[in-house]
Amino acid sequence: MAYEFKIRRIVEFSDTDMAGIVHHAMFFRYMESAEHAFFRSLGLTVAPPKSVSSVGWPRVHTEADFSAPLRFEDEVEIHLLVAEKKSKALTYAFRLRKLNTPKPYEVARGRITVVCIKMVGGKMKAATIPKEISDKISVSPKRLLKN
After folding, report:
1. Residue 90 bridge partners (DSSP)
2. What average pLDDT does the segment 37-62 reach?
3. Comparing C-alpha atoms, which of 79, 76, 117 is closest to residue 95?
4. Among 107, 111, 113, which residue's Cα sits nearest to residue 22?
5. In the chain, what percentage of residues exceed pLDDT 90?
6. Domains present along the chain, CATH in parentheses
7. By C-alpha distance, which of 67, 55, 45, 68 is closest to 126?
8. Residue 46: predicted pLDDT
9. Helix (DSSP H) and strand (DSSP E) numbers for the chain
10. What is the mean pLDDT of the chain?
11. Which of 6, 45, 82, 84: disulfide with 91, CB 3.0–4.6 Å?
């Protein structure tokens, strides 16, 4: 069962603001892209065709703390850790590190909590995470979450 995933990306010019640094909202896109890649690495998708599954994963909590800026063409590693797994929700912890420097360093941390939902009568209702998904995901060891 998987409990962590890492992905790298290069900061695009369109990710930056007037000050030439990555706009804070982009960090949430980076975290979300890591979540989607994590699902793909497990042979899953967060948006299966409706004919296959009717589950969705809306965000119910997001947070981020920033410690250093990223700029155009910086290489960043997004490290996803499964911080918590409940019957209907997953919480991810993220650590973002700047890599294109002699000594890579952390630039931000974040958390996102998603709830598994199904559409019932045109409304979203919390649903138990399907077994085929739940069986592939576990909670990260505490030693990794403490760092």
Report:
1. 85, 114
2. 86
3. 79
4. 107
5. 85
6. 4-146 (3.10.129.10)
7. 55
8. 87
9. 3, 8
10. 94
11. 84
In terms of Cβ atoms closer than 10 Å to its own Cβ (0-12, 13-18, 19+), residue 33 is middle
Q: How many CB atoms lie within 10 A of CB 138?
A: 13
Closest CA relative to residue 139, chosen from 80, 79, 82 = 82
Q: In this predicted model, which residue has the larger pLDDT, 49 or 8?
A: 8
Structure-block tokens of residue 73: 């063409």
**pLDDT of the residue at 93:** 98
pLDDT, tens digit (0-9, with 9 covering 90-100), for 104-142 = 999 999 999 999 999 888 888 999 999 999 999 999 999
Task: Tell me how many degrees the CA angle 107-113-118 measures, rounded to the nearest 5.
Answer: 145
Nearest to 93 by CA among 143, 127, 43: 143
Q: Which amino acid is at 139?
A: V
| Model pTM above 0.85 | yes
Listed in order, strand segments (DSSP E) in the chain are 4-10, 55-56, 59-66, 75-85, 89-98, 105-115, 117-120, 123-126
